[in-house]
Amino acid sequence: MATDKKIQFWKRNAKVPGSFLKEAPKTNALSIKSKKASSFLEFARSTSDAWDIGDDEEEEFLGGPPPNTPPNLNSKVAVATAAQVIHNYSKVREKPEWPQSTERVQANGSVVKSSSAAQLSQPSDGSSFRKPLHKQQSLPLRPVIPLIARISDQNASGAPPMAVREKTRLEKFRQLLASQNTDLEELRRCSWSGIPREFRPITWRLLSGYLPANMERREIVLKRKRDEYFGFIEQYYDSRNEEHHQDTYRQIHIDIPRTNPLIPLFQQAPVQEVFERILFIWAIRHPASGYVQGINDLVTPFFVVFLSEFVEEDVENFDVTILPQHVQRNIEADSFWCMSKLLDGIQDNYTFAQPGIQTKVKALEELVSRIDEHVHNHFQKYEVEYLQFAFRWMNNLLMRELPLRCTIRLWDTYQAEAEGFSHFHLYICAAFLIKWRKEILEAVDFQGLLLLLQNLPTIHWGNEEVGLLLAEAYRLKYMFADAPSHYRR
Length: 489
Known about the structure:
Elements: H1 2-12, H2 29-36, H3 40-45, H4 56-61, H5 75-92, E1 103-105, E2 111-113, H6 115-120, H7 164-178, H8 184-191, H9 200-207, H10 215-236, H11 243-255, H12 269-285, H13 300-307, H14 325-345, H15 355-371, H16 373-381, H17 387-395, H18 404-416, H19 420-435, H20 437-442, H21 446-454, H22 463-480
Antiparallel strand pairs: 1-2
């Protein structure tokens, strides 16, 4: 009897949750099944989402909204609601975690946030949400890495660079450089794994032999060398229009605009004039080689590093005319002397017939034949000569293959090595070649191989990739440098 009363109660109360209203249309099992079997596109058409405001690409892909679709939400209401939700959420979370914020430590120990972090920290009062929202904005994107800005701080992964280990390294560099007589051997050991941005200019001057280890003599030497350089300018630069120097100057004048054409800094007229003076004076003072195409690239890392000493913002778009005249002159003179020190160790790369490059390319071929026989035989099968791609690697020290930020990081280690530019570079080239082993073996014709080797995809490389390259090169050097017959058949 009690059971019958319960049944009668549920029949009488049609408004109980879970019950069917009389005016609701009945749906049979067949229609439900057909709805489940409907396509994803039909589901997407019948779904209205406030976050899809202005999503034109999706509407075009879906062929426009169907005629029976309910009208979309009011855009102003949706935007205001979204802004309010975000504002409330920011109050709940005291310390939001932004995954792509980067920081850089200045010489005084203060932390400078990058522009991306500054933008993310703006108050969410609704003013920054007036633009239409797109789904792509909520997806994690690979960070856009500038060509030369934040050279030592940015990894390809975009991870924040500062850690306990990095702070310890900073303190180590600070102590070494503050000592009365800098321990150059210890400085080389610390520099092998990279030099912090704020200490890189003075460290490069010291490791290149341009600056003395004794702190008391540094200012005297700097003044004397800078005055000596501008004495050369006064003595020789006017002779650039003389007949026996016209060819040299004309070639320099042609090559300068081709130097890093994608970086606005090097397209400024004052910067190009600085490069012309540096290269012309070097060519006049080294008649055995003179100016050779490719030497113009070797100035750029020194110029950028010494410029970064006075620039806190991104270097690639910096207007050098803002700097005082004496600062511009000092950067120019220091770049000239450090480049000269570098070229003194590899000058046979640029003498007649460039015998140094010929020897290094032959050594690379022999080394690769011992390291990876499959790659070497693949080149032989399709008649690819090492000179056809490795000549540029030796002539420009891989500067055309790597972004400038990677070159500067690589040169940290070259400066730390006893014969970094002349000897260790060979193992860097071998490791760099084997890095692309899979892509090389997949190319099955001469043209495909050369196109690959002359356009290797390194645009997104950062400190992480360069570190792995250096580690592999060090392994190869350890195995083969002192064992010339190892693996030789």
